[in-house]
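Aggregate trends can hide what the representation actually does to any particular protein. In the encoding step, the backbone of a single protein was reduced to a row of integers, each denoting a local shape. The record that follows shows the chain in one-letter code together with its fold in token form.

***
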Amino acid sequence: MRDAIVHASGARMRWVELPGADPAVVYVHGLGAASAPYYAGAAAHPLLTGRRSLLVDLLGFGVSDRPADFSYTLEAHADALAAVLREAGVEGASVVAHSMGGAVAIALAARHPGLVGRLILVDANLDPYPPGLVLPGGSGIASYTEDDFVSRGWKEVRERVGPHWWATMRLADRRGLHRTATSLAKGTDPVMRELLMSLPIPRGYLYPEGAAPAAPGDLAAAGVRLVEVPDAGHNIMLDNPEGFARAVAALLA
């Protein structure tokens, strides 16, 4: 395991690194997740081995630190991730990012263009949540005030998300989890979709069978390669590891 100080408090982000050839592949997890449990199998797949791979945990999640004075916005996560990549000597990385992590990766590519050479988004958030939408994860967490979530809301969310997601969500800092979910609900400015469409790098978007992102024609017209992965739900890399590896390898080629 490696680490880097990424915040004035001395807080460190940590990652698991697999040796291989550059440019590196950087794996970024979603809300309430951690990269190793979600990506280790994929990174070790024969179609994806041989590349230097970094499985990074964002601040507040997994094995990374949980600074109380960090804002946990999508942009702040992107800047902290940029500090990790610079510390690791990474340039022009292929960033594979799931769900909320995809929103962070888009912000990373827009704010730190030299660090990202390719984006592969995995059923990622491209738009702010519609008003009134309350789902078990992100929008459900953001529906509480921060103090209410920390004191009681997390228990209700635990029951809604189920044991699989809670296995990693329980490791997250509760204030960090809420602040991240709130920023995700709000989105970036410009919004992630607009940033993605404007990026001058190769971009791919993996989605579960029958669940294409909104306005797929606009994304395709902007050069985003849309890849449908069968036999999978939102956690494509866990639901269909073979299909995920094949899709990612094709986009890396």
Observations:
- Residues 2-129+189-252 form a domain with the Rossmann fold fold (CATH 3.40.50.1820).
- Residues 146-169 form the longest helix (24 residues).
